[in-house]
Amino acid sequence: MTLPANGDRAALAPKSVSGDRLCRLVGERTGDTDLAHDARVVSQVLPFKVSSYVVDELIDWDLAPNDPIYRLTFPHRDMLDIEHFELVEEAVLAGDKEGIRQAVTKVQYALNPHPSNQLSMNVPQDEELDAWGLQHKYPETLLVFPRQGQTCHSYCGYCFRWAQFVERPELKQAVPAPETMTNYISRHPEITDVLLTGGDPLVMRTDLLASYLEPLLEPGREHVETIRIGTKALSFWPYRLLAGPEADSLLRLLERLTAAGKHVAMMLHLSHPTELKTDAVKAALSRLASTGAVLRAQAPVVRHVNDDPHTWAELWQAEVRNGVVPYYMFVERDTGARRYYGMPLATATEIYRGALQRVSGLGRTARGPVMSATPGKVAIDGVVELDRGPAFALRMLQARRPEMVGRPFFAAYDPHAQWWDELRPYGTRDREFFGADVEVDAR
Predict the structure, then answer these.
(1) CA 239, CA 14: separation in Å to the nearest integer?
(2) How many C-beta atoms lie closer than 10 Å to residue 11's C-beta?
């Protein structure tokens, strides 16, 4: 394992490729000028940035563009509808900056930048506090978007928070300082879990990260029992945990939190077993576990990257070997490049079931497939045969209305449905889960 140059800057900021440089890299590494052209067009709309670690350590360029990590991080023309692609392409070829801006704006808003009513239903409406950059969807859990953490070492093409990374300030959620978070928490004693998200909080300097986390140890905030940190750094830049004083100070921060009695959960975004194969990531996971933090892993099941049960079984087994608890298999949300990555719920269910059959009980802790939809986290438990035909058996793992959690219900089976909004109640008893304006399936 070769570490980067010593120093905080090396640990925090890898060399990353973005914009036109990224497009040139596509052509250079694949020898395909069409791929490079398509990347240039798509990257006007959706954010793309790739770290040197991903380029040099994770992608098998002999397989590109069909390498799964390439598919995870690099642009493809099928990420956009044909109409949208051609609209942006025309402006790019004309070199018309204003035309590009107008075309990109039109396409970005058509891609449902904030799915599942995040802005209208999750952002607290507090007259005494500007809560933009907080989300409080479930009573016990508060999501915090630190301003300094709203980027990543690399971008996943399927990221449902892609709108955080484009040049459109009105779409970006961020709290300017920790006081926004702490003031809100002090007024809401029902909050037991605080989740720092983004972006990626581990792009932040440790002292900035500490300014958000250490106030949770102060008197009056004992009701906050769990601190979660969502990150992809272990996959895209493990040196954040390995190189220089910044890495060491991060580990000491986590140790202080666990020693104070907080449950610290590192929510690792792991999409493919390749991400766990380097010496660097194994060493980073070991260091992270030494702090007393619990390591959990989650990712969506998506086409082109991990759309088969063997891949998921291998991923869960590798997670268990490295001390990581498989937590969620999500469904790709109805936003961004969903047309490229999404798949029918029926297919996702078969992949999940096939993966379970290939692992031991310790690998079966991953819940899925799960839709993080407007009413809550909806698990698809399988397809069942009922009196009027097949149905999806569903269950709320989490819900805006807590009384719905854990109750089984059914949706009419639809082999083409990819998201919650495409499902219909199987019977009248299921209607309360979908809303009064959703009709019961008439078949």
Answers:
(1) 9
(2) 26
pLDDT of residue 7 exceeding 50: no
Average pLDDT over residues 46-56: 93
Q: Using alpha carbons only, how large is the chain's radius of gyration in Å?
A: 22
Share of the chain above pLDDT 90, in %: 86
pLDDT tens by residue, 24-48:
888 888 889 999 999 999 999 999 9
Strand partners, 78: none
Predicted local distance difference test score (pLDDT) of residue 50 = 93
Q: What are phi and psi of 331, to 5 degrees?
A: -95, 140
Q: Does residue 6 surpass a pLDDT of 50?
A: no
| pLDDT higher than threshold 50 for residue 177 | yes
Q: Is the pLDDT of residue 160 over 90?
A: yes
Secondary structure, 3-state, the chain: CCCCCCCHHHHHCCCEEEHHHHHHHHHHHHCCHHHHHHHHHHCCCCCCEEEHHHHHHHCCCCCCCCCHHHHHHCCCHHHCCHHHHHHHHHHHHHCCHHHHHHHHHHHHHHCCCCCCCHHHHHCCCCCCCCCECEEEEECCEEEECEHHHCCCCCCCCCCCCHHHCCCCHHHCCCECCHHHHHHHHHCCCCCCEEEECCCCHHHCCHHHHHHHHHHHHCCCCCCCCEEEEEECHHHHCHHHHCCHHHHHHHHHHHHHHHHCCCEEEEEEECCCHHHHCCHHHHHHHHHHHCCCCEEEEEEEECCCCCCCHHHHHHHHHHHHHCCCEEEEEEECCCCCCHHHHCCCHHHHHHHHHHHHCCCCHHHCCCEEEEEECCCEEEEEEEEEEECCEEEEEEEEEEECCHHHCCCEEEEECCCCCCCHHHCCECCHHHHHHHCCCCCCCCC
d(CA 62, CA 293): 37
d(CA 20, CA 191): 44
Would you state the pLDDT for residue 17? 66
Strand 367-372 relative to strand 325-331, pairing: parallel
Contacts 24+ apart (CB under 8 A), 118-127: 119/173, 121/374, 121/400, 123/173, 124/184, 126/184
Sheet arrangement for strand 408-412: 134-138, 141-144, 193-196, 226-231, 263-269, 294-301, 325-331, 367-372, 376-386, 389-399, 408-412
Cis peptide before 65 (omega within 30 of 0): yes
